[in-house]
Amino acid sequence: MTSRPAPSAAPPRGVGRAPAPRRHRRLPRGLEAQPLFATQVRAPAARARRRQERAALDPGGLAAAREVLGLGAMPDLRPALAARAGRARLVVGADDARFLAIARTLAHASPELRCDVVDGSGHDPTLEAPRALADVIARTLGQRSG
Fold first, then answer.
1. Can you tell me the distance from the alpha carbon of 24 to that of 62, in angstroms, rounded to the nearest whole number?
2. Angle formed at CA 23 by CA 22 and CA 28, multiple of 5 degrees
3. Alpha carbons within 13 A on the beta-carbon side of 134
4. How far apart are CA 34 and CA 88, in angstroms?
5. Which end of the chain is more exposed for a tag (fewer CB within 10 A), N or C?
6. pLDDT-based confidence at 75, cuts 50/70/90?
7. String of b and e for 25-64 (b: at least 16 CB within 10 Å)?
8. pLDDT tens for residues 4-48?
9. Which distant-in-sequence residues (6+ apart) come within 8 Å of 103 by Cβ?
10. 71 vs 74, 91, 102, 112, CA distance in Å?
């Protein structure tokens, strides 16, 4: 786990775009096949638990949530984040190239905004590196209280 200053990176793509048409009705296995989640093979037991959790969800509801909450459908909240940069912290997996670039771009634009990179994790540090993520959270809370 390292805390790095943010070099310039390409701006986030898709922020503020209209949602894609509804097309994902069967999702759990298809979601895992996306390159974004390829690093999760390093945590097979956690991945299996996550698969069971997803399988219990309503596929239509999950697909609808992805359409509304996905990066391409989200409103552009960068100005709001920049306005609160001193109270916010970005945490991203070191092996998640796309979101690492987005986090570094955001941190570069707002120097008060810290970006913690979790080594040994891709897109989902809660699944791939929970102890390292807990360390980041504990350290952040310690910095804020001390």
1. 9
2. 115
3. 5
4. 29
5. C
6. confident
7. eebbeebbeeebbebbeebeebbeebeeeeeeeeeeebbe
8. 444 444 445 444 444 444 444 444 556 677 887 889 888 999 989
9. 6, 90, 92, 115, 117
10. 5, 16, 11, 23
Q: DSSP label at 138?
A: H
Two structure tokens written together for 115? 């970006």
> Around Cβ 82, how many Cβ atoms within 10 Å?
14
By mean pLDDT, which of 10-24, 49-63, 70-84 is the weakest? 10-24
Element housing 139 (H / E): helix 130-145
β-strand partners of 91: 116
Q: Which amino acid is at 42?
A: R
